[in-house]
Amino acid sequence: MSTENGSQIASIIKDARKIVIKIGSNTLAKADGTQNVEFMQNFARQCKALIDMGKQIVVVSSGAQVSGVSTLKEWARKKDVHFRQALCAIGQVELMSQWRKAFAAYDLHIGQLLFTKEDFENDHRSLNIRNTLFTLVDEGVVPIINENDSVSTDEFAIGDNDNLSALTSILWSSDLLILFSDIDGIYTDNPKTNPKAQLIPTVSNISELRAQITIGGTNAFGTGGIETKIQAAEKTTAYGIPLLLANGSVESILDKCTEGTAAGTVFLAQ
Length: 270
Prior knowledge:
The chain is an alpha/beta fold. The chain has eleven helices and eight strands. An eight-stranded mixed sheet has the order 3-4-2-1-5-7-8-6, sandwiched between helices. Helix 1 (3-15) crosses helix 11 (253-259), helix 3 (37-52) packs across helix 5 (81-104) and helix 8 (161-172) runs parallel beside helix 10 (226-238). It is globular. The protein starts with a helix and ends with a strand.
């Protein structure tokens, strides 16, 4: 990581008051596919540090299905859509229970919001979402958002939490969206298969970026990939909201981003 890259990341966090942070399924899952409770506890501590600095935090958390598998391991191999949605219903309870415990250790309350695509397409619902977010945050509560996977179908699904977090950022008028995934940022190629792939620290033109890089598929636990992260950046930057993509598996990654010692890709606001 270059000093310049770290300084830029620290600068955009310093300048932002309202921050949406999305945590991917791979970050919330251990190698065996079970919940990474230790990450959640440490992440809550890092959020408290930002809140103590005067920041307002909204969390978009994947992991309902991972949590469901952790709870009912015998369902892990079931692929039927009804079982997957049932797993999410079970897992969402466990997921929020662990988040509640993690944030309670720092005297912070959480509030759950579950959305479908329709919620963002209906003006009345969108206004209610916005008002609820403002009320929760103004009262010192950390909203934790996820897609309502137990009822979403292809017709009503947003499909991934990268785009959900972008829609949330726009609706809440945030100053910054941070995506924590299992990769340091956007590379010229897949760094897991191409050792010569180079990290792209700053993106100012997404159309040019698409012409420069190779976009791979999705990963083991998540529903997104690099494409959905670029889509999220297209959404937020058009509204003047920068986006930071960084590696959630790095120890105390939020602290490191704030201190300027983390690598990542910054999508500049248009």
